[in-house]
Amino acid sequence: MCLNAIEFHDVKKSYAHIVAVAGVTFSIAQGSVSALLGGNGAGKTTLLSMLLGLVTPTHGQIHVLGTDMLRHRYRVLPRISFMSPYVDLPFRLTVLQNLTFFAQLYGVSDTNKRVAKLLNELNLEPVARRHYGRLSAGQRTRVALAKALLNAPELLVLDEPTASLDPDTADFMRRYLLDYRREKNATILMASHNMVEVERMCERVIILKAGRVVDTDAPTALLKKYGRETLEQVFLDVARHTRQASVAHGE
């Protein structure tokens, strides 16, 4: 039996007269890698914020790893982690100091061993004693991932995980994440505008537009449905309201 790591049931979020998420329902299987796609203003950030327990929905239910996030989110938060290269760590602390601090904050047992393991696996040992503020953008991205993995999360939520990385390092990161998923049977949900990355990594794609799920399926199934060769073309079809025309004419 396949269990769901994430379940959204008719979830809505409004701010005064602005509807950010308008009745979203979907589920994500445990141990899978899924992508959340959508243009600016589609509702991705609000949806992720609700998933992480940072924002309370106006209506609906959210279950994460079998836990009701509205009633018992503190029971499941230690099993979740979030990573974004756009969220900086303290500049004046070294990489080692940052990771050690957050490991202790998260209550990680055997902090030194866990930090050393991640420094080694993510090729961060050469910069371990360098101040975070002096790192390159790519190095900061790897440090951000190390921080996110300190608590060995069962659910890893990623926002543009390979932004600012050169192609070789980005490929390394993707392979590392997929290996982590297999080793831990972890669930990964990523928001990304890198369609090649989504096609390579994800088993399922959820497309948001104007706060609603407008389509969801495996990448290959979406390509067939829209008669396109790449997910970028599918994304543009959705963004430009051309799905019906494309399918009708067999383009």
Q: Quick recap of the structure?
A:
The protein is of the alpha/beta class and 251 residues long. The protein contains ten helices and ten strands. Helix 3 crosses helix 4.
How would the blueprint of this fold be written?
Elements: E1 4-15, E2 18-29, E3 33-37, H1 44-51, E4 59-64, E5 67-68, H2 69-76, E6 80-83, H3 95-105, H4 111-121, H5 137-148, E7 155-159, H6 167-184, E8 187-191, H7 195-201, E9 204-209, E10 212-217, H8 219-226, H9 231-239, H10 243-248
Parallel strand pairs: 3-8, 3-9, 6-7, 7-8
Antiparallel strand pairs: 1-2, 1-4, 4-5, 9-10
Helix pairs in contact: 3-4
SSE-based structural type? alpha/beta
In whole angstroms, the N-to-C terminal distance is 38 Å
Count of DSSP H/I helices: 10
| Sequence stretches where pLDDT stays below 50 over 5 or more residues | 244-251
Q: What features would you describe in this structure?
A:
The chain has 251 residues and is an alpha/beta fold. Helices cover 39% and strands 25% of the residues. The protein is built from 10 helices and 10 strands. The strands form 2 sheets. It has a 6-stranded mixed sheet. Helix 3 (95-105) packs across helix 4 (111-121). The radius of gyration is 19 Å and the shape is globular. The N and C termini lie far apart (38 Å).
